[in-house]
């Protein structure tokens, strides 16, 4: 009885036969309509969208406490060392040509 029930449930789980599929090489085959959905359709802008003049932005940063206020908001240590100025790149010596080359290679 259990085996029969199992076979019956497996037979019921079978999918219906696929509908007729047109030959892709047939120029007269029916084709479903093309639907385009932009990848930006669901985009929602976040945060402030209006630009702020740089002078006003600098004054706001100064008023709230400078970079230390941003460090506190980001949970960074306020005593973090200021990064050192980058060292200038080392310049390679100028290439000179020997007396017999006249600058040609």
Description of the molecule:
The chain is mainly alpha-helical and 105 residues long. It has a domain at 55-81. The chain has three helices and no strands. It has helices at 2-13, 54-64, 67-73. The radius of gyration is 36 Å and the shape is extended. The mean pLDDT is 74.
- Average pLDDT works out at 74
Radius of gyration: 36 Å
Q: Write the element-wise H/E pattern from the N-terminal end onward.
A: HHH
Q: β content, as a range?
A: under 5%
Q: Extract low-pLDDT stretches.
A: none
The major beta sheet can be summarized as:
none
Helix fraction?
A: 25-40%
In DSSP terms (H or I, runs of 4 or more residues), the helix count works out at 3
Can you count the beta strands?
0
Describe the structure in brief.
This protein is mainly α and 105 residues long. The protein has helices spanning 2-13, 54-64, 67-73.
Could you outline the blueprint of secondary structure elements for this entry?
Blueprint: H1 2-13, H2 54-64, H3 67-73
Give keywords.
105 residues, mainly alpha, 29% helix, extended
């Amino acid at each position: 009885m259990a085996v029969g029930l199992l076979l019956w449930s497996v037979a019921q789980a079978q999918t219906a036969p696929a509908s007729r599929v047109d030959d892709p090489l047939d120029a007269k085959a029916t084709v479903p309509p093309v639907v385009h959905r932009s990848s930006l359709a669901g985009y929602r802008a976040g945060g402030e969208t209006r630009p702020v003049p740089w002078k006003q932005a600098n004054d706001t940063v100064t008023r709230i406490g400078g970079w230390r206020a941003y460090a506190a908001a980001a949970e960074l240590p306020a005593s973090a060392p200021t990064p050192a100025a980058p060292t200038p790149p080392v310049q390679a010596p100028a290439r000179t040509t020997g007396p017999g080359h006249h600058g040609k290679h």
